[in-house]
C-alpha cells in the first residue's frame, strides 16, 4: 500500500486537452510513423528479394516469413528489458534507435550503384547487398518486436485511475493509427518502388521504397523523444513473465524430484510449486496455462494470414492490375486488407453481433475464433481457384529437358520451314504462331537450304530467317523463360534494316543495333509506351504502343523501313508472351474472406485472452498471443520446404486443408473449455490468504500470550522463592 502511495506521488501530472494528457498525442503519432515504416518496408520486401537479390519464389518466401517470425519472437525480450531493467520509456527509445539504424542499413543495401553493376542491372557484388540486407532485417526485427509490447502499455500509463473512459478512447485511436499507417504505407511505398533511379543504370527504386520508411522511423523516434518531459514514467517493477516462468520451472523440478517418493498426489501438476510460491500466484499461473493450451492450434491461422505479403503478392505479379481509371501494382493489393478492416470492424460490432444475439444464438468467443479460422481456410480455397485460372493464361515454358523455338521470317517473300517433324509456310515479315518444342538437336530446312540446329536445353529461342548473298540464313536469339518482372513488359528490337539504328526502349537507351541483330530486352511499364529509332544522322522515328501487364514483344524493323511521317508502318510487333489477362480484382474475394476471418479471429482472441487472464498476467498472455504469430510464420517455412509441390494452387489447397483440420481440433478443445472469472478466483484466494494470515496471526498471538503467561508464572515463582529465602534468613 505504501508503495502504491509513493508511486502516485511520483507521477507527474501531464498537461491535458479535453481531459486527455497531451503526452498521448506524441505516442499516437509515434505509432502511426512506426507502423508506416514497418508495413511500408514489408509491402515491397518479397519483391526486393525476388527481383533485386534474384532469389526464387520459394527462397524469397522462406526469408520473408523467417523475418516476420523474428518480429513476433522478440516482443518477449522487449517486455523483459522494460519490466526488469530499463522501464518502458528507455526501452522504446533505445530499441527505436536500433530499429531506425536497421531501416537505414536496409535502404543502403538496396542501392545498386554501391558496387559495379552488370548489364542486366544486377549488382556485381551481390553478396555485399545480401549481407547488408540481412543485418538490416535483424536490427528491424529486434527493434519493432522489442517496442511492440511497450508502446501501447506506455500510452495506458499516461492516464490516472479515474480516466477509464479516456483510456478506452486512446486505445481505439491507437488501433486506428496502426491501420492508417499500414494503409498509407502499402499505397505509397509500391509507388516509390515503381520509380526508376540510379547513377550508372536506371532500375526499380528500392532505395527510395526503403528510405522513406527509414525516414518515418526517424521521425517516430524524434517525436517520441520530444514528448519526454510530459510523460508519466513508471520505474521497472519486476517482470511478472520471469516470475511466471520461474513458478512453472519450480513446479516441474519439484515434481520430477519427488516422482518416486511417497508424497501424496496433487490435484494439478502446478500444485508442486506450493512449497515455494503462494497459492494466489499458482492459481494465476493455472489460469494463464489454461488459455495458453487453447493457443496451441492458433499458429495455423497466422500461417495463412501472413502469406498476403509473400505468396499472394507473387500471385498478383501474374495478374492484370487494370481497374479502369485505376492501375494497381502487385504489392498495392495488400491495401485491401486494412481498408476492409476499417469497414468490417464497425459492421461486425454494430450489426452482425447484435443480430446474432437477437437470434438467441450463443456465439461465444471461442466459437467466433473457430469461425474466423474457417473463413481463412475458405480464403485459401479461393486463392487456389484463382491460381488455377491464372495458370490457364500463362505460357508453357520449357522444362529442363526441352527447348522451344519460334521462327520469324524477315524476308519479303513466303518461306517454307521444316524443323524436325514440324512443317509450315511463313508469310513475309511474320512469325510462327507458337513455340515448337524439341528434346534434341533438329534439322532445319529453309526452302532448299539445310542446317542442323543445336540449342541449350531449358531455353526459349527465336530463329530469324534473313536473306544473305548465298540464300536464306537462320540466326538464333535466346528469349526470356519466365513472365517479365513485377507485371512489367519485356521489349526488344530486331534490326532487319540495311544500316545500324539507335534504339531507345522506354527511358532506356539501348544504343546502336547492327543489321540482322537483336537488342537486349528493355523493361516498360503498363500504359502508353513510346520507342525512338534514330539513324546516324540523328533523324528520328517514334513508335507508339499500348501495353498491358507481363507481356513480351519482339519489335521487327523491316528491310522496307524508312524515316518519315509513316515510319511506324515499317515496324511490326511480334507477340512472344501474352499479357496478363486475369484481373487482380479476382483476388478481392480471397482478401475479403481472410480479412473477415481476421476480424472475427484476432479481435475476439484478444478480448477472450484479456477476459480470461489474471489482472497481473495480461502481458504474459499478450506475449503468448504474439508468439502464435511467430510460430505461424515458422509453419509456412516448414510446409513450403517439406511439401515441394510443383503447382502453387495445390499448396494453397494444402494450407486450407491443414487449417480445416486444426479448426476441428480447436472446436473440440473449445467444447471442453470452461469460462472463468479471474477476478472471483483471485478474490477467493486473496480472501483465503487473508484468512490464513489472520489465523497465523491469531496463533502467534496465542503463542505469545502463552509464552507471556509462562514467563509471568516463572517470575512469580522466582519472586516467591526469594521471599521465602529472605524470611528464612531473618529468622536465623
UniProtKB/TrEMBL annotation:
Keywords: Cell membrane, Glycoprotein, Membrane, Peptide transport, Protein transport, Symport, Transmembrane, Transmembrane helix, Transport. Gene3D superfamilies: MFS general substrate transporter like domains. GO terms for cellular component: apical plasma membrane. Pfam families: PTR2 (PF00854). The chain crosses the membrane at residues 20-39, 59-80, 92-114, 126-147, 168-188, 208-231, 287-305, 339-357, 369-390, 588-608, 620-640, 652-673. It catalyses: glycyl-sarcosine(out) + H(+)(out) = glycyl-sarcosine(in) + H(+)(in); glycyl-L-glutamine(out) + H(+)(out) = glycyl-L-glutamine(in) + H(+)(in); a dipeptide(out) + H(+)(out) = a dipeptide(in) + H(+)(in); glycyl-L-glutamate(out) + 2 H(+)(out) = glycyl-L-glutamate(in) + 2 H(+)(in). It is found in: Apical cell membrane; Cell membrane; Membrane. Residues 690-732 are annotated as: Disordered. It is a multi-pass membrane protein. It comes from the Eukaryota. SUPFAM superfamilies: MFS general substrate transporter. Residues 690-717 have a biased composition (Basic and acidic residues). One of its GO terms (molecular function) is symporter activity. Its main location: membrane. GO terms for biological process: oligopeptide transport; protein transport. Electrogenic proton-coupled amino-acid transporter that transports oligopeptides of 2 to 4 amino acids with a preference for dipeptides. Transports neutral and monovalently charged peptides with a proton to peptide stoichiometry of 1:1 or 2:1. Primarily responsible for the absorption of dietary di- and tripeptides from the small intestinal lumen. Mediates transepithelial transport of muramyl and N-formylated bacterial dipeptides contributing to recognition of pathogenic bacteria by the mucosal immune system. PANTHER family: OLIGOPEPTIDE TRANSPORTER-RELATED. Belongs to the major facilitator superfamily. Proton-dependent oligopeptide transporter (POT/PTR) (TC 2.A.17) family. This is Solute carrier family 15 member 1. It comes from Oryzias melastigma.
Amino acid at each position: 500500500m505504501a508503495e502504491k502511495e509513493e508511486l502516485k506521488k511520483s507521477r507527474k501530472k501531464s498537461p491535458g486537452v479535453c481531459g486527455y494528457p497531451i503526452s498521448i498525442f506524441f505516442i499516437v503519432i509515434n505509432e502511426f510513423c512506426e507502423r508506416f515504416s514497418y508495413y511500408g518496408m514489408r509491402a515491397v520486401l518479397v519483391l526486393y528479394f525476388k527481383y533485386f537479390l534474384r532469389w526464387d519464389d520459394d527462397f524469397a518466401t522462406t526469408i520473408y516469413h523467417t523475418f516476420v517470425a523474428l518480429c513476433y519472437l522478440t516482443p518477449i525480450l522487449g517486455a523483459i528489458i522494460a519490466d526488469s531493467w530499463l522501464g518502458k520509456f528507455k526501452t522504446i527509445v533505445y530499441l527505436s534507435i536500433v530499429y531506425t539504424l536497421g531501416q537505414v542499413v536496409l535502404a543502403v543495401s538496396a542501392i545498386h550503384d554501391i558496387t559495379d553493376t552488370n548489364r542486366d542491372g544486377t549488382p556485381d557484388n551481390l553478396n555485399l547487398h545480401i549481407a547488408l540486407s540481412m543485418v538490416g532485417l535483424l536490427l528491424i526485427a529486434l527493434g519493432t518486436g522489442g517496442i511492440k509490447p511497450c508502446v501501447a502499455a506506455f500510452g495506458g500509463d499516461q492516464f490516472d485511475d479515474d480516466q477509464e473512459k479516456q483510456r478506452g478512447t486512446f486505445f481505439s485511436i491507437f488501433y486506428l493509427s496502426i491501420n492508417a499507417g499500414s494503409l498509407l504505407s502499402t499505397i505509397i511505398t509500391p509507388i516509390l518502388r515503381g520509380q526508376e533511379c540510379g547513377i550508372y543504370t536506371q532500375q526499380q527504386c528500392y532505395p527510395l521504397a526503403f528510405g522513406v520508411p527509414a525516414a518515418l522511423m526517424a521521425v517516430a523516434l524524434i517525436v517520441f523523444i520530444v514528448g519526454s518531459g510530459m510523460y508519466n514514467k513508471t520505474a521497472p517493477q519486476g517482470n511478472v513473465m520471469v516470475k511466471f516462468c520461474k513458478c512453472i520451472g519450480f513446479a516441474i523440478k519439484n515434481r520430477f524430484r519427488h516422482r518416486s517418493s511417497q508424497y501424496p498426489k496433487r490435484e494439478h501438476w502446478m500444485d508442486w510449486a506450493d512449497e515455494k510460491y503462494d497459492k494466489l500466484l499458482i492459481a494465476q499461473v493455472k489460469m494463464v496455462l489454461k488459455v495458453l493450451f487453447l493457443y496451441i492450434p492458433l499458429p495455423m491461422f497466422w500461417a495463412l494470414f501472413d502469406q498476403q505479403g509473400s505468396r499472394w503478392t507473387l500471385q498478383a505479379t501474374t495478374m492484370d492490375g487494370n481497374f479502369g481509371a485505376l492501375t494497381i501494382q502487385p504489392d498495392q493489393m495488400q491495401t485491401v486488407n486494412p481498408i476492409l478492416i476499417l469497414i468490417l470492424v464497425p459492421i461486425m460490432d454494430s450489426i452482425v453481433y447484435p443480430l446474432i444475439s437477437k437470434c438467441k444464438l450463443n456465439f461465444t468467443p471461442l466459437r467466433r475464433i473457430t469461425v474466423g479460422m474457417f473463413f481463412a481456410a475458405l480464403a485459401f480455397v479461393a486463392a487456389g481457384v484463382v491460381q488455377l485460372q491464372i495458370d490457364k493464361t500463362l505460357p508453357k515454358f520449357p522444362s529442363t529437358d526441352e527447348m522451344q523455338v519460334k521462327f520469324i521470317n524477315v524476308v519479303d517473300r513466303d518461306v517454307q520451314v521444316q524443323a524436325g517433324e514440324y512443317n509450315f509456310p511463313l508469310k513475309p515479315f511474320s512469325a510462327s504462331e507458337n513455340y515448337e518444342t524439341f528434346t534434341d538437336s533438329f534439322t532445319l530446312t529453309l526452302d532448299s537450304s539445310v542446317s542442323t540446329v543445336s540449342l541449350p536445353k531449358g531455353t526459349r529461342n527465336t530463329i530469324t530467317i534473313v536473306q544473305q548473298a548465298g540464300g536464306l540464313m537462320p540466326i538464333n536469339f535466346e528469349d526470356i523463360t519466365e513472365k517479365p518482372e513485377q507485371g512489367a513488359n519485356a521489349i526488344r528490337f530486331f534490326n532487319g534494316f540495311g544500316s545500324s539504328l539507335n534504339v531507345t526502349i522506354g527511358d532506356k537507351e539501348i544504343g546502336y543495333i547492327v543489321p540482322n541483330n537483336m537488342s537486349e530486352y528493355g523493361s516498360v511499364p503498363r500504359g502508353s509506351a513510346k520507342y525512338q529509332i534514330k539513324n546516324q544522322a540523328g533523324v528520328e522515328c517514334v513508335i507508339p504502343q499500348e501495353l498491358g501487364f507481363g507481356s513480351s514483344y519482339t519489335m521487327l524493323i523491316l528491310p522496307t523501313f524508312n524515316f518519315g511521317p509513316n515510319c511506324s508502318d515499317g515496324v511490326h510487333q511480334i507477340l512472344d508472351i501474352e499479357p496478363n489477362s486475369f484481373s487482380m480484382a479476382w483476388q478481392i474475394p480471397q482478401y475479403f474472406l481472410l480479412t473477415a476471418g481476421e476480424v472475427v479471429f484476432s479481435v475476439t482472441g484478444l478480448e477472450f485472452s484479456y477476459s480470461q487472464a489474471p489482472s497481473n498476467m495480461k502481458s504474459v498472455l499478450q506475449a503468448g498471443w504474439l508468439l502464435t504469430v511467430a510460430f505461424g510464420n515458422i509453419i509456412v517455412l516448414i510446409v513450403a520446404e517439406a511439401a515441394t509441390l510443383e503447382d502453387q494452387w495445390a499448396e494453397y489447397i494444402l494450407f486450407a486443408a491443414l487449417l480445416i483440420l486444426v479448426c476441428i481440433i480447436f472446436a473440440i478443445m473449445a467444447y471442453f473449455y470452461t469460462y472463468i472469472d479471474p477476478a472471483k478466483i483471485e478474490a477467493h484466494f486473496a480472501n483465503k490468504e487473508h484468512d490464513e494470515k489472520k489465523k497465523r496471526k491469531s496463533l502467534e498471538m496465542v503463542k505469545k500470550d502463552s509464552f507471556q503467561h509462562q514467563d509471568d508464572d516463572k517470575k512469580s515463582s522466582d519472586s516467591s522463592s526469594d521471599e521465602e529465602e529472605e524470611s528464612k534468613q531473618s529468622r536465623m
